[in-house]
Amino acid sequence: MVTIETKQHPAWDVYKATCPTRQVLDCIADKWAVLVIGLLNGGTRRFGEMRKSIEGVSQKMLTQTLRSLERDGIVSRRVYASVPPKVEYTLTPLGQSLAGIVESLRVWSESNIEVVLASQQTYDARPEAE
Questions:
Q1: H or E element that contains 67
Q2: Cα(67)–Cα(59) distance, integer angstroms
Q3: 4-58 pLDDT, tens per residue?
Q4: What is the CA radius of gyration of the chain?
Q5: What span is annotated as the signal peptide, if there is one (predicted)?
Q6: Beta pairing partners, 80
Q7: How far apart are CA 126 and CA 112, in angstroms?
Q8: 75 forms bridges with which residues in the sheet?
């Protein structure tokens, strides 16, 4: 496990836009970012490899997601001088520290999907009057 040094801050108000929790959730709160982080947790990948592995992601969305994660310091991009150019993506130490949390979310999801689906069915079956 990678340890990232953190600074101590006064108590943050999670309901304010400047709260770090909200800022980080803005970075990773879409499904593609979480899937990319989970995939890269298994090691370095090339763009085409990721596109094939993540069912349903468009080239445009994957590109935008990778750029956003790179901007946030979660993913690093390495370009090799070759024809055609070879580009690889890997998690940074910061990204590796986040990957454990994403993995925990995956495990929770798989463990609880039946309950979630049953709850959705119960909710959807309620009369409109409620």
A1: helix 59-71
A2: 12
A3: 555 655 677 878 888 888 878 887 788 899 999 999 999 999 999 999 999 999 9
A4: 18
A5: none
A6: 86
A7: 22
A8: 91
Contact 76, 31 (CB under 8 A): no
Half-sphere exposure in the Cβ direction for 111 (13 Å, CA): 6
**Phi, psi angle pair for 29, to nearest 5°:** -85, 10
Q: Token digits for 40? A: 């890269």
**Residues contacting 123, CB < 8 A, separation 6+:** none
pTM above 0.90, yes or no: no
Q: What domains are there in the chain, each with its CATH number? A: 20-124 (1.10.10.10)
Separation between Cα atoms, residue 23 and residue 17, nearest integer Å:
7
CA distance 92 to 76: 6
70's tokens: 């790179």
Residue 5 has a pLDDT of 59
Helices and strands of the chain, counted as H and E runs: 5, 3
CA distance 38 to 98: 9
The residues, ordered by sequence, that sit 6+ positions from 3 with a Cβ below 8 Å of its Cβ are 97
